[in-house]
Design brief:
Helix content of chain A: 40-55%
Strand content of chain B: under 5%
Distance between the termini of chain B: 59 Å
Structural class of chain A: mainly alpha
Number of domains of chain B: 1
Number of strands of chain A: 0
Order of helices and strands of chain B: HHEEHHHHHHH
Order of helices and strands of chain A: HHH
Number of helices of chain B: 9
Helix content of chain B: 55-70%
Structural class of chain B: mainly alpha
Oligomer: heterodimer
Radius of gyration of chain B: 18 Å
Largest sheet of chain B: 2 strands, antiparallel
Protein backbone atom coordinates (compact mmCIF):
# COMPACT_ATOMS: atom_id res chain seq x y z
CA UNK A 1 0.00 0.00 0.00
CA UNK A 2 1.05 3.62 0.20
CA UNK A 3 4.60 4.20 1.29
CA UNK A 4 5.15 7.15 3.65
CA UNK A 5 6.36 9.61 0.96
CA UNK A 6 3.37 8.74 -1.25
CA UNK A 7 1.07 9.23 1.67
CA UNK A 8 2.65 12.60 2.42
CA UNK A 9 2.21 13.61 -1.20
CA UNK A 10 -1.46 12.60 -1.06
CA UNK A 11 -2.00 14.51 2.17
CA UNK A 12 -0.45 17.64 0.66
CA UNK A 13 -2.62 17.32 -2.45
CA UNK A 14 -5.79 16.70 -0.40
CA UNK A 15 -4.99 19.68 1.83
CA UNK A 16 -4.55 21.90 -1.22
CA UNK A 17 -7.80 20.65 -2.76
CA UNK A 18 -9.64 21.35 0.50
CA UNK A 19 -8.15 24.84 0.86
CA UNK A 20 -9.18 25.60 -2.74
CA UNK A 21 -12.78 24.59 -1.93
CA UNK A 22 -12.78 26.75 1.22
CA UNK A 23 -11.41 29.77 -0.67
CA UNK A 24 -13.99 29.40 -3.44
CA UNK A 25 -16.85 29.12 -0.94
CA UNK A 26 -15.53 31.66 1.53
CA UNK A 27 -14.10 34.37 -0.71
CA UNK A 28 -14.90 33.88 -4.41
CA UNK A 29 -18.60 33.42 -3.58
CA UNK A 30 -18.89 37.18 -3.02
CA UNK A 31 -18.14 37.71 -6.71
CA UNK A 32 -21.03 35.50 -7.83
CA UNK A 33 -23.38 37.13 -10.36
CA UNK A 34 -26.45 37.95 -8.24
CA UNK A 35 -29.19 37.07 -10.72
CA UNK A 36 -31.49 34.06 -11.16
CA UNK A 37 -29.91 31.03 -12.82
CA UNK A 38 -31.12 29.45 -16.04
CA UNK A 39 -33.72 27.25 -14.36
CA UNK A 40 -35.15 30.08 -12.24
CA UNK A 41 -35.22 32.34 -15.28
CA UNK A 42 -37.38 29.82 -17.12
CA UNK A 43 -39.65 28.98 -14.18
CA UNK A 44 -40.18 32.64 -13.21
CA UNK A 45 -40.80 33.89 -16.74
CA UNK A 46 -44.26 35.45 -16.76
CA UNK A 47 -44.42 36.02 -13.02
CA UNK A 48 -43.50 39.52 -12.02
CA UNK A 49 -41.12 39.34 -9.13
CA UNK A 50 -41.77 41.85 -6.41
CA UNK A 51 -39.03 42.89 -4.07
CA UNK A 52 -39.25 42.04 -0.41
CA UNK A 53 -40.13 38.46 -1.13
CA UNK A 54 -43.77 38.86 -2.05
CA UNK A 55 -44.38 37.26 -5.38
CA UNK A 56 -47.20 38.40 -7.59
CA UNK A 57 -48.85 35.22 -8.76
CA UNK A 58 -49.18 35.56 -12.47
CA UNK A 59 -48.59 32.97 -15.08
CA UNK A 60 -45.32 31.12 -14.93
CA UNK A 61 -44.01 27.64 -14.27
CA UNK A 62 -43.34 28.57 -10.67
CA UNK A 63 -46.77 30.10 -10.07
CA UNK A 64 -47.65 27.37 -7.58
CA UNK A 65 -44.19 27.16 -6.06
CA UNK A 66 -44.13 26.93 -2.30
CA UNK A 67 -41.77 28.54 0.11
CA UNK A 68 -39.06 26.17 1.21
CA UNK A 69 -40.16 24.11 4.19
CA UNK A 70 -36.92 25.02 5.94
CA UNK A 71 -36.85 28.68 4.84
CA UNK A 72 -36.45 29.80 8.45
CA UNK A 73 -33.47 27.56 9.21
CA UNK A 74 -30.28 29.33 10.33
CA UNK A 75 -28.34 28.88 7.09
CA UNK A 76 -31.29 29.28 4.69
CA UNK A 77 -30.40 30.95 1.39
CA UNK A 78 -26.67 30.78 2.20
CA UNK A 79 -26.93 33.35 4.97
CA UNK A 80 -26.14 33.03 8.63
CA UNK A 81 -29.31 33.83 10.57
CA UNK A 82 -30.62 35.78 7.59
CA UNK A 83 -27.49 37.90 7.31
CA UNK A 84 -26.46 37.77 3.66
CA UNK A 85 -23.14 39.47 4.41
CA UNK A 86 -22.05 36.20 6.00
CA UNK A 87 -22.42 34.30 2.70
CA UNK A 88 -18.76 33.30 2.86
CA UNK A 89 -19.13 31.85 6.35
CA UNK A 90 -22.20 29.86 5.37
CA UNK A 91 -20.31 28.64 2.30
CA UNK A 92 -17.39 27.49 4.45
CA UNK A 93 -19.79 25.69 6.79
CA UNK A 94 -21.35 24.01 3.75
CA UNK A 95 -17.97 22.87 2.42
CA UNK A 96 -17.01 21.42 5.81
CA UNK A 97 -20.37 19.70 6.33
CA UNK A 98 -20.25 18.23 2.82
CA UNK A 99 -16.68 17.05 3.38
CA UNK A 100 -17.50 15.45 6.72
CA UNK A 101 -20.67 13.73 5.44
CA UNK A 102 -19.19 12.68 2.09
CA UNK A 103 -15.70 11.84 3.25
CA UNK A 104 -17.00 10.16 6.41
CA UNK A 105 -19.53 8.05 4.50
CA UNK A 106 -16.96 6.96 1.91
CA UNK A 107 -14.35 6.26 4.58
CA UNK A 108 -16.71 4.09 6.63
CA UNK A 109 -17.96 2.23 3.56
CA UNK A 110 -14.53 1.27 2.24
CA UNK A 111 -14.05 -2.48 2.35
CA UNK A 112 -11.57 -3.74 4.92
CA UNK A 113 -8.47 -5.22 3.38
CA UNK A 114 -7.54 -8.39 5.20
CA UNK A 115 -4.39 -9.14 3.21
CA UNK A 116 -2.58 -6.20 4.71
CA UNK A 117 -3.11 -6.27 8.49
CA UNK A 118 -0.69 -3.39 9.16
CA UNK A 119 -3.11 -1.10 7.37
CA UNK A 120 -5.85 -1.79 9.87
CA UNK A 121 -5.61 -1.62 13.58
CA UNK B 1 -38.12 35.87 2.07
CA UNK B 2 -40.03 33.65 -0.25
CA UNK B 3 -37.80 33.80 -3.26
CA UNK B 4 -34.13 34.40 -3.39
CA UNK B 5 -31.67 34.85 -6.19
CA UNK B 6 -29.40 32.36 -4.48
CA UNK B 7 -31.96 29.57 -4.79
CA UNK B 8 -30.56 27.38 -7.51
CA UNK B 9 -32.60 24.22 -7.86
CA UNK B 10 -36.18 23.09 -8.44
CA UNK B 11 -38.48 24.39 -5.68
CA UNK B 12 -41.48 22.57 -4.25
CA UNK B 13 -44.78 23.01 -6.11
CA UNK B 14 -43.38 23.38 -9.63
CA UNK B 15 -43.75 19.67 -10.36
CA UNK B 16 -46.79 17.93 -8.86
CA UNK B 17 -46.57 15.61 -5.86
CA UNK B 18 -47.08 12.23 -7.59
CA UNK B 19 -44.39 13.00 -10.18
CA UNK B 20 -42.05 14.25 -7.46
CA UNK B 21 -42.67 11.05 -5.50
CA UNK B 22 -41.88 8.87 -8.52
CA UNK B 23 -38.62 10.69 -9.12
CA UNK B 24 -37.92 10.45 -5.38
CA UNK B 25 -37.99 6.68 -5.78
CA UNK B 26 -35.84 6.90 -8.93
CA UNK B 27 -33.31 9.06 -7.11
CA UNK B 28 -33.18 6.84 -4.02
CA UNK B 29 -32.80 3.73 -6.16
CA UNK B 30 -30.11 5.35 -8.29
CA UNK B 31 -28.07 6.49 -5.30
CA UNK B 32 -28.44 3.11 -3.57
CA UNK B 33 -27.21 1.37 -6.73
CA UNK B 34 -24.29 3.80 -7.00
CA UNK B 35 -23.47 3.18 -3.35
CA UNK B 36 -23.36 -0.57 -3.90
CA UNK B 37 -21.24 -0.23 -7.05
CA UNK B 38 -18.79 2.23 -5.49
CA UNK B 39 -17.87 0.23 -2.41
CA UNK B 40 -15.25 -1.94 -4.07
CA UNK B 41 -13.57 1.19 -5.39
CA UNK B 42 -13.18 2.84 -1.98
CA UNK B 43 -9.83 2.79 -0.26
CA UNK B 44 -7.75 5.15 1.85
CA UNK B 45 -6.99 7.25 -1.22
CA UNK B 46 -10.31 7.34 -3.11
CA UNK B 47 -12.48 7.89 0.00
CA UNK B 48 -10.93 11.25 0.99
CA UNK B 49 -10.64 12.21 -2.69
CA UNK B 50 -14.38 11.64 -3.22
CA UNK B 51 -15.22 13.55 -0.03
CA UNK B 52 -13.14 16.48 -1.29
CA UNK B 53 -14.75 16.32 -4.74
CA UNK B 54 -18.18 16.62 -3.08
CA UNK B 55 -16.99 19.61 -1.01
CA UNK B 56 -15.43 21.18 -4.12
CA UNK B 57 -18.67 20.80 -6.12
CA UNK B 58 -20.58 22.38 -3.22
CA UNK B 59 -18.18 25.34 -3.27
CA UNK B 60 -18.33 25.77 -7.05
CA UNK B 61 -22.14 25.66 -7.07
CA UNK B 62 -22.07 28.89 -5.06
CA UNK B 63 -20.36 30.69 -7.92
CA UNK B 64 -23.07 31.94 -10.23
CA UNK B 65 -21.50 33.33 -13.37
CA UNK B 66 -23.21 35.64 -15.91
CA UNK B 67 -24.51 34.05 -19.12
CA UNK B 68 -26.83 36.86 -20.26
CA UNK B 69 -27.67 40.24 -18.72
CA UNK B 70 -29.67 39.37 -15.61
CA UNK B 71 -29.29 35.61 -16.04
CA UNK B 72 -26.70 33.47 -14.30
CA UNK B 73 -25.57 29.89 -14.37
CA UNK B 74 -23.64 27.70 -12.02
CA UNK B 75 -21.77 24.42 -12.13
CA UNK B 76 -23.86 21.26 -11.85
CA UNK B 77 -20.79 19.11 -11.34
CA UNK B 78 -21.74 15.67 -12.66
CA UNK B 79 -19.06 15.48 -15.35
CA UNK B 80 -16.42 16.99 -13.07
CA UNK B 81 -17.11 14.49 -10.30
CA UNK B 82 -17.36 11.51 -12.67
CA UNK B 83 -14.08 12.28 -14.46
CA UNK B 84 -12.26 12.61 -11.13
CA UNK B 85 -13.80 9.78 -9.08
CA UNK B 86 -15.87 7.73 -11.51
CA UNK B 87 -19.61 7.59 -12.21
CA UNK B 88 -20.69 5.79 -9.03
CA UNK B 89 -18.82 7.90 -6.50
CA UNK B 90 -19.42 10.92 -8.73
CA UNK B 91 -23.19 10.62 -8.57
CA UNK B 92 -22.99 10.14 -4.80
CA UNK B 93 -20.86 13.29 -4.51
CA UNK B 94 -23.40 15.40 -6.41
CA UNK B 95 -26.27 13.73 -4.50
CA UNK B 96 -24.69 14.58 -1.15
CA UNK B 97 -24.23 18.19 -2.25
CA UNK B 98 -27.92 18.43 -3.21
CA UNK B 99 -29.05 16.86 0.07
CA UNK B 100 -26.87 19.25 2.12
CA UNK B 101 -28.18 22.21 0.10
CA UNK B 102 -31.83 21.21 0.55
CA UNK B 103 -31.61 20.35 4.26
CA UNK B 104 -29.16 22.96 5.50
CA UNK B 105 -29.46 25.87 3.08
CA UNK B 106 -33.14 25.65 2.04
CA UNK B 107 -32.00 25.46 -1.59
CA UNK B 108 -33.99 23.02 -3.70
CA UNK B 109 -37.36 21.91 -2.33
CA UNK B 110 -37.66 18.92 -0.02
CA UNK B 111 -40.31 17.17 -2.11
CA UNK B 112 -38.35 18.26 -5.19
CA UNK B 113 -35.15 16.64 -3.89
CA UNK B 114 -35.74 13.50 -5.96
CA UNK B 115 -36.25 15.61 -9.09
CA UNK B 116 -33.03 17.52 -8.49
CA UNK B 117 -31.04 14.40 -7.63
CA UNK B 118 -32.37 12.56 -10.69
CA UNK B 119 -31.38 15.45 -12.97
CA UNK B 120 -28.03 16.55 -11.62
CA UNK B 121 -26.65 13.56 -9.72
CA UNK B 122 -27.91 10.74 -11.93
CA UNK B 123 -28.65 12.02 -15.46
CA UNK B 124 -25.91 14.66 -15.40
CA UNK B 125 -23.26 12.34 -14.03
CA UNK B 126 -24.24 9.51 -16.38
CA UNK B 127 -24.15 11.75 -19.45
CA UNK B 128 -20.93 13.48 -18.39
CA UNK B 129 -19.21 10.18 -17.75
CA UNK B 130 -20.64 8.52 -20.85
CA UNK B 131 -19.26 11.25 -23.09
CA UNK B 132 -15.91 11.23 -21.26
CA UNK B 133 -15.68 7.44 -21.56
CA UNK B 134 -16.49 7.54 -25.28
CA UNK B 135 -13.73 10.13 -25.76
CA UNK B 136 -11.28 8.43 -23.36
CA UNK B 137 -8.91 7.35 -26.16
CA UNK B 138 -8.44 11.05 -26.88
CA UNK B 139 -8.23 12.03 -23.21
CA UNK B 140 -5.22 9.78 -22.62
CA UNK B 141 -3.23 11.39 -25.45
CA UNK B 142 -2.11 14.41 -23.50
CA UNK B 143 -3.15 17.06 -21.04
CA UNK B 144 -4.69 19.37 -23.67
CA UNK B 145 -6.74 16.46 -24.95
CA UNK B 146 -7.93 15.59 -21.45
CA UNK B 147 -8.93 19.21 -20.90
CA UNK B 148 -10.84 19.24 -24.20
CA UNK B 149 -12.66 16.03 -23.30
CA UNK B 150 -13.53 17.46 -19.88
CA UNK B 151 -15.01 20.55 -21.54
CA UNK B 152 -17.18 18.56 -23.97
CA UNK B 153 -18.35 16.12 -21.29
CA UNK B 154 -19.33 18.95 -18.96
CA UNK B 155 -21.12 20.85 -21.72
CA UNK B 156 -23.20 17.79 -22.62
CA UNK B 157 -23.87 17.10 -18.93
CA UNK B 158 -25.40 20.57 -18.49
CA UNK B 159 -27.54 20.52 -21.63
CA UNK B 160 -28.94 17.01 -21.11
CA UNK B 161 -29.53 17.65 -17.40
CA UNK B 162 -31.77 20.57 -18.35
CA UNK B 163 -33.82 18.16 -20.45
CA UNK B 164 -34.46 16.18 -17.26
CA UNK B 165 -36.43 19.13 -15.96
CA UNK B 166 -38.33 19.44 -19.25
CA UNK B 167 -39.25 15.74 -19.00
CA UNK B 168 -40.42 16.16 -15.41
CA UNK B 169 -42.41 19.24 -16.34
CA UNK B 170 -44.00 17.38 -19.23
CA UNK B 171 -45.10 14.60 -16.90
CA UNK B 172 -46.18 16.62 -13.91
CA UNK B 173 -45.92 20.35 -14.47
CA UNK B 174 -48.15 22.17 -12.03
CA UNK B 175 -48.69 25.17 -14.28
CA UNK B 176 -49.87 25.55 -17.81
CA UNK B 177 -47.10 26.59 -20.13
CA UNK B 178 -46.16 25.73 -23.66
CA UNK B 179 -43.77 22.79 -23.57
CA UNK B 180 -42.04 23.94 -26.73
CA UNK B 181 -41.23 27.29 -25.18
CA UNK B 182 -39.96 25.63 -22.01
CA UNK B 183 -37.82 23.23 -24.04
CA UNK B 184 -36.26 25.98 -26.15
CA UNK B 185 -35.57 28.26 -23.18
CA UNK B 186 -34.06 25.46 -21.11
CA UNK B 187 -31.80 24.20 -23.91
CA UNK B 188 -30.76 27.69 -24.99
CA UNK B 189 -29.87 28.91 -21.52
CA UNK B 190 -28.17 25.66 -20.55
CA UNK B 191 -26.07 25.63 -23.70
CA UNK B 192 -24.65 28.94 -22.45
CA UNK B 193 -24.31 27.60 -18.89
CA UNK B 194 -22.68 24.51 -20.36
CA UNK B 195 -19.85 26.65 -21.73
CA UNK B 196 -19.16 27.91 -18.21
CA UNK B 197 -19.51 24.41 -16.80
CA UNK B 198 -17.11 23.19 -19.46
CA UNK B 199 -14.49 25.83 -18.65
CA UNK B 200 -14.69 25.22 -14.88
CA UNK B 201 -14.56 21.44 -15.34
CA UNK B 202 -11.65 21.68 -17.78
CA UNK B 203 -9.66 23.93 -15.42
CA UNK B 204 -10.31 21.67 -12.43
CA UNK B 205 -9.55 18.40 -14.20
CA UNK B 206 -6.47 19.94 -15.80
CA UNK B 207 -5.18 21.13 -12.41
CA UNK B 208 -5.71 17.75 -10.75
CA UNK B 209 -4.12 15.93 -13.70
CA UNK B 210 -1.04 18.09 -13.65
CA UNK B 211 -0.32 17.41 -9.99
CA UNK B 212 -1.82 13.93 -9.46
CA UNK B 213 -2.84 12.25 -12.71
CA UNK B 214 -3.16 8.96 -10.77
CA UNK B 215 -6.17 10.46 -8.96
CA UNK B 216 -8.07 11.10 -12.20
CA UNK B 217 -10.49 8.17 -12.55
CA UNK B 218 -10.87 8.59 -16.31
CA UNK B 219 -7.13 8.01 -16.77
CA UNK B 220 -7.03 5.00 -14.47
CA UNK B 221 -5.90 1.83 -16.15
CA UNK B 222 -4.21 3.81 -18.89
CA UNK B 223 -0.56 2.79 -19.28
CA UNK B 224 1.76 4.82 -17.08
CA UNK B 225 3.37 6.62 -20.02
CA UNK B 226 0.04 7.91 -21.28
CA UNK B 227 -0.96 8.97 -17.80
CA UNK B 228 2.27 10.87 -17.54
CA UNK B 229 1.57 12.30 -20.96
CA UNK B 230 -1.85 13.45 -19.83
CA UNK B 231 -0.18 15.19 -16.91
CA UNK B 232 2.54 16.78 -18.98
CA UNK B 233 2.26 20.12 -20.68
CA UNK B 234 3.57 18.73 -23.93
CA UNK B 235 1.91 16.00 -25.93
CA UNK B 236 4.20 13.01 -26.23
CA UNK B 237 5.73 11.97 -29.50
CA UNK B 238 5.44 8.61 -31.16
CA UNK B 239 5.26 6.11 -28.35
CA UNK B 240 1.78 7.05 -27.15
CA UNK B 241 0.22 5.68 -30.30
Amino acid sequence: MSTPPQRGRSLAFFAGFGVAALLIAGVLSYLAYPHPDGLDTVTLQGCSEASGGEQLRDDCLAQNADDHALADSPLADYTVGGNAVLLGLSGIIGVLVTLVIGGGLFWLLRPRRTENPTDER
Amino acid sequence: MSSSVVAMHISDGIINAPTSAVFGVVAAGGLAFALAKSRAQLDERTAPMAGLVAAFVFALQLINFPILPGVSGHLLGGALAAILVGPWLGSLCVGIVLIVQALLFADGGLTALGLNITNMAIIGTAVGFGVALALRPLATRGRQWLIGVAFISAFMNTVITSLGFVLQYTIGGAAGASLGAVLISMIGLHALIGIGEGIITALTVGAVASSRSDLVYLLRGAPQHTRTAAAAQITPQGSAS
